[in-house]
Design a protein that fits this description.
By secondary structure, this protein is α/β, with parallel strands linked by helices.
Length: 243
């Protein structure tokens, strides 16, 4: 099984350990992992900002790069959601792409969904001990249907104690350009999220989108909390931890 890993811009530039963790997990499931060296962005920032022409060029590039893979997997509900949910709209007037795009979107998965529902992973290679709480990112939850999948994988780790926070499905306030255009609202949402994390009593907040991770981690630090760790679920499951 040849799996194309869409690393994502943020992972590549800000926290590549997530990409290496994803590869480790996919290989644990017996996959041959292919990482196109030419890959860049899925086009979501441009698409959300009305720059459809730029976004379309990136979407066509992704289609070319991953077309030959059996699956496209991303450690991000945001990027996988862009490809699976929004590419059909973005490329609707692009001649000769309808069938190719239908095949791509059908084989596009968020990482934990792929591990649970396609690979049916029974064990994970990482070890972890501590109380964690899980933040459901908007795109993972609402565009990719990811809710129980990461929790089922965390349950396979004997040392993990999952403590659900209040309003775990509520936005952290990032939303890409939303956090820039509506800074006051974004900050209030982030503060609410940080308070709920702290009140859960967890040592670590775990999630599946690096955009949310950076937003939450930054806000925790601004609030003076430098002890609560923020980790991608792939890092926890693979045992690749950034100190």
């Amino acid at each position: 099984m040849k799996v194309g890993l869409f690393v994502t811009c943020l992972v590549d530039l800000m926290r590549p350990s997530i990409g290496f963790a994803a590869i480790k997990l996919l290989e644990q499931g017996g996959c041959e992992v292919f990482v196109p060296v030419t890959q860049t962005c899925c086009g979501q920032p441009g698409y959300n900002s009305g720059e459809r022409s730029a976004a379309k060029g990136l979407a066509l590039k992704v289609l070319d790069e991953f077309e030959a893979c059996d699956y496209l997997v991303a450690p991000s509900g945001s990027c996988s959601g862009m490809i699976k949910t929004h590419y059909p709209d973005l490329l609707s007037d692009e001649p000769g792409t309808a069938d190719r795009l239908a095949r791509l979107t059908a084989k596009t998965y968020e990482l934990t969904d792929f591990l649970v529902n396609v690979l049916k992973l029974e064990t994970v290679p990482g070890t972890f001990s501590g109380k964690v709480t899980y933040h459901d990112s908007c795109s993972s939850l609402r565009e990719m249907g990811v809710k129980q999948q990461p929790r089922l994988l965390l349950e396979k780790m004997p040392g993990v104690q999952l403590a659900e926070m209040e309003e775990g499905e509520t936005c952290c306030g990032f939303g890409g350009t939303f956090s820039i255009k509506f800074g006051e609202i974004s900050s209030r949402l982030a503060d609410n999220k940080c308070r709920n994390i702290e009140e859960s009593g967890a040592d670590v907040v775990v999630l599946g989108d690096l955009g949310c991770m950076l937003n939450i981690e930054g806000r925790l630090h601004r609030r003076g909390n430098t002890t609560t760790r923020v980790m991608h679920v792939a890092e926890v499951l693979a045992g690749i931890h950034r100190e």
